[in-house]
Amino acid sequence: MSIITPDYYETLELPRTATQEEIKEAYRNLSLRFHPSKASQSLSQIYEYKFHKIAEAYIILSDPNKKGIYDNYGKEVLYNGLKDKNGNIKGAYKYTGNAMEIFNNFMDKTNPFSLIREYEKMDDEYGSIFNSANGGMNEMEKKKLDNINIDLPCTLEEFYNGAVKYISYKKIGLNYDGRTSNEKNVEIKVEIFPGYSKETTLKFPYQGNESPGQISSDLIINLKEIPHEKYRRVNKNDLLYIHDIKLSDALNSAPIDILTLDGRKIKISMDEIISPKTVKVVKGEGMPFCDMDNYVDNYVWDGKKGDLFIKFNILFPEYINGKKKDLIVKLLKE
Q1: In the CATH hierarchy, which top-level class contains the domain 231-333?
Q2: What's the fold here for domain 1-141?
Q3: Residue 176's pLDDT band (cuts 50, 70, 90)
Q4: Confidence of residue 281 (pLDDT cuts 50, 70, 90)
Q5: What's the pTM?
Q6: How many angstroms separate the Cα of 33 from the Cα of each of 2, 98, 139, 172?
Q7: Which CATH architecture has domain 143-227?
């Protein structure tokens, strides 16, 4: 399964219309909920990961300049910076991993550890989301909520080129008090990388249903392939293309033009008479290889692709007059 990192608003569980007060409140509650000091040994990596993502999201969305760049241009421009009128790069941002410093600065007027203890007591009263509750419910006894499964149709072009898609779904989510929940409408961004297929399953950890005293479920996205008129994926990374060709061109071994899934036109020469059994193989024009097992951050496409197999649908003329037909038959017999 592949894991996709949500955007900053999704990380703080906020709509894109959130105010600065809502951003601060979301950071306060989530940073307390996922503070590493609250994690059991088995969940320490998950808490650490969430704690850093929450801190980075807060730093961006609480800063009007960074937020403006992110809202208007996205993460790539935020990370790489904007060019001024003189061509100089300004505003490039890089997260330095200082989540604890961000937390301590945010909580500078209170004792953060007393807040954590207060939050834990509130969790214990109702049964905490992950840790053991005072009422005797331990981590092993807690049940994980049912995952949310969503099918996401994709075209073969999207699997070939990559794409960004947005999906909306409903979930039961915890309120800021951590004790009550209600139904929420959530929109997330899904990145389709070159080489993904209908066999790819994307997993968003703990982005499913939430409930007090239960382990939050995952959001599972199952990619589905929309059939293509001309192309079909075979052998995982190869493509099969059905090319319509006139009988006269088939007999003359005429070169053929193919429109690829990324919009290129390639000319392919034929060195034999084309028959219904002919298969032309074009090396390196199949689907991109996608050898990603765990995290999208690890995904690097080296340009390697499978092969393209071309089969032919020979178009016979609908009518041939008698004399021409006799001549063709005679020539074919010879």
Answers
A1: mainly beta
A2: Helix Hairpins (1.10.287)
A3: low
A4: very high
A5: 0.57
A6: 25, 18, 16, 17
A7: Sandwich (2.60)
